[in-house]
Amino acid sequence: MPNHGELPELAAAVLQPGFAGATAPDWVRRWLGEGLGGVALFARNVESPAQVAALTAQLRAERPDVLVAIDEEAGDVTRFESRQGSSRPGNLALGAIDDIRLTEEVAHDLGCDLANAGITLDYAPDADVNSNAANPVIGVRAFGAETQLVARHTAAFVRGLQAAGVAACAKHFPGHGDTSVDSHHDVPLIDRDRAQLEECELVPFRAAIAAGVQVIMTGHLLVPAYDKELPATLSRPILTGLLREELGFDGLIVTDGIEMQAVRRRYGLAGATVKALAAGADAICVGGDHADEQTAVLLRDAIVAAVRSGELPEERLRSAADRVRRLGQWTTATQTATGARAIADAAPEVAVLPHAAGVGFDAARRAVRVTVAEGAAPLPVDGPAHVVEFAPPRNIAIGAETPWGLGTPLDELLPGTTSVRLTEDELGADPAATVLDGSAGRPLVLVVRDVHRHAWLADVLNGVLAQRPDAIVVEMGVPETVLGAIHIATFGATRACGQAAAELIAGTRVPAPAPQPLAA
Q1: Which one from 256, 282, 362, 450 is the annotated catalytic residue?
Q2: A Pfam family in this protein (predicted)?
Q3: What predicted TM-score, i.e. pTM, was given to this entire model?
Q4: Are strands 486-489 and 369-372 parallel, antiparallel or unpaired?
């Protein structure tokens, strides 16, 4: 006879809920004693590395092998550095450089920071092939649009991160790149046959598996080649048939945020959770929006009820819980072996890198590409500039609190630089006049993100450039469109990317040092 008395503990083991606050709330600490397998940290939980280390120490005091996860892509999507912007350039910049050794070094550097703060699982790297330039949610988060390039950098990122003792998580299986729909809002359709998927989307995931990736995250994607009805997160043919049996992955499968509308709208939080586990998922990520104990109770009770009703086989739940515990043991053993130690337990003086120093900033400098038309005035500029940053609708995966742009770093290098940020609605009846206001007699820098996806932005740029052909255009998104006599592509909008472009414009850029060997 099954021992149903264990079910609440098993159900808690497969949850990775979020919570509010910079310290562990009582309900989370209590749940850890009752079997909770992991938690997910978001920007709201991060104030500083030392504070995160103290938080994770609280969690680990209740359960030493708890999985502490964070969605830290080391690019535009950053949680660990959400308050100041990432000190690393992000995937697209690393793909543009195409130095797998550098990618591994950047990932290892990130892993060391996370491990020293007590984080054991990073929902990275993004292994999507951004083959659709209209993609509204991947873009600079991908290493690029070329399959083999994405595959080799995905594998390098996995190796670097895990060498530091942090479990890597390749996402969003089986591939979110060829879509123009954001799964936060609706169900994207990946309308490719199996041969096409095998030649493109699946290649980076095979590379991640070959590199020993510990975790793979599901995408809330409809892939009719494998399942005509259910999104991948809820599909047994995709998670068990394709990922487990065909690709041979034996690590942990975690869902993308289960509250995302692509699965929640039709199935509800509880229904999507049960279906995901039945399909082959091992852990449920929740709490980006629903960061409370009531949500955790709802999901735990739904899992228990599904087992008792026969909807979810008990052996499937036990297998999922076993994988969670196994990963917890791996992270504990690996971080011990690599010598990671929480900052809170370290010496009072924590080493802090100088401003704009480190492998991430060096990588951002290497990524910058400049296109100069014949006859254009050369860089650097000859005095304080006026910077206009255009703000298209935000990619929801990128935290609203995360700073970006060029105004601040350029003002630090060229004091007296002024800046303004404009949305489409703020441009008024005469957009060119609005943009040019305040720029007379000084260099003009126009900062854009993904101009190819926003017709209004291309129109405004063309209108402004007709009057100020000397303006410098800085593209901090995917550089599909090149406009202006001087065009600078940073391949991301992180703090490191902004610093690299500002140095180039101001003429203070220094050569990056030669890469050093990875720490043993």
Answers
A1: 256
A2: Glyco_hydro_3
A3: 0.94
A4: antiparallel
